[in-house]
Design a protein that fits this description.
By secondary structure, the chain is of the alpha/beta class. The protein folds into 2 domains: 119 residues, Rossmann fold (3-Layer(aba) Sandwich); 174 residues, Dihydrodipicolinate Reductase, domain 2. It is built from 9 helices and 15 strands. Strand 11 and strand 12 form a beta hairpin.
Length: 326
């Protein structure tokens, strides 16, 4: 096999980012899209010039001309359809969050092992040169001893409702949708989960968090702070603060032309270079290499499990209004 034949499960907005890089890759072919309703699949296939439209989702898994699927369904459907796709012999790239519990990640991992297929979570920033440049700057010692990690990801959802991101039955919430980025980023910087977390949230009438703030304490005296939300203006940034300097990362989660990486030492500001790759190209390239070349995937399911464990602990803390130890 020299390239992967892809199918899309669902017609979510996030597909648009994936469709572009699939078409640009010499090792990928977009073959089909599936929806619960045949007319929806047909309209979507016509709009995006996808060869085959199928319904329901199971019909996509039954096709012999599909090697891998991208799952952009609501959060509560990720585990079920990832496992079903793996059991059907398909490789799986599932949009974040991969699962809403650590047990859900375990179920996907077990299905991947049983069926000898690759399963991965779609956290685009984990595959971008900007993130590698951040890790390289930290490893070089330019910041000294890491003391604090701070992050934010928010946007104004007003005017877009009703929206699955505010539906508790579909795994809604700002922490699952955008807070997962700075929270997982902090764990990536430390290469470990926190030992204790404290979360605070503002919820809607259905109990879904519209704003979330979290504090995470790591071994070695390192603290992380982050916030996420649907009620404030767009913000997307990370800051890693050390004893000798600070690293400021502008627009780290979906890197693009406006992203910046700046090393700050007292009054000195140094712009650090990184390769401005298209946002999702690295995610696709790494997944393809894992399937076709047997390369290790840079975002293993153990890391996805760590993220699920941390986020569920933060929600538990916010519900109890008390710290939670991991």
């Amino acid at each position: 096999m020299t390239r992967l034949r892809w199918g899309l499960i669902g017609t979510a907005r996030i597909n648009r980012a994936i469709i572009g890089v699939l078409r640009e890759s010499p090792r990928a072919e977009l073959s089909a899209v599936a929806s619960r309703r045949a007319e929806t699949a047909e309209a979507y296939a016509a709009e995006w010039k996808i060869p085959h439209a199928v319904s329901p989702y199971e019909a996509l898994l039954d096709r012999d001309d599909i090697d891998a699927v991208y799952i952009g369904l609501p959060n509560t459907m990720h585990v079920e359809w990832s496992v079903r796709a793996l059991d059907a012999g398909k490789h799986v790239l599932c949009e974040k969050p991969l699962a809403l519990t650590p047990d859900g990640v375990d179920a996907i991992a077990a299905a991947a092992v049983k069926n000898r297929r690759v399963a991965a979570e779609g956290f685009m920033y984990r595959h971008h040169p900007l993130t590698r440049a951040v890790l390289g700057a930290i490893d070089s010692g330019q910041l000294g001893a890491i003391r604090l990690i701070r992050g934010a990801f928010s946007f104004l959802l007003q005017g877009r409702e009703p929206d699955i991101r505010t539906d508790p039955a579909l795994g809604g919430g700002s922490l699952w949708d955008v807070g997962c980025y700075p929270a997982s980023y902090a764990c990536l910087i430390r290469n470990a989960p926190p030992v204790e977390v404290f979360g605070c949230q503002v919820t809607n009438a259905n109990g879904v968090d519209l704003s979330f703030s979290g504090i995470m304490r790591f071994d070695g005296g390192v603290l992380a702070q982050f916030d996420s939300g649907f009620q404030s203006t767009f913000r997307s940034d990370m800051e890693i603060v050390g004893s000798d300097g600070a690293l400021r990362v502008e627009r780290p989660f979906k890197a693009g032309p406006d992203s910046r990486l700046v090393l700050v030492r007292d009054d000195e500001r140094i712009s650090l270079p990184f390769t401005p790759d298209p946002p999702y190209s690295g995610e696709l390239a790494d997944f393809t290499a894992a399937v076709l070349d047997g390369a290790p995937h840079p975002l293993p399911l153990s890391e996805s499990r760590r993220t699920a464990r941390v986020l569920t602990a933060l929600y538990a803390s916010a519900a109890a209004n008390a710290p939670v130890r991991l």
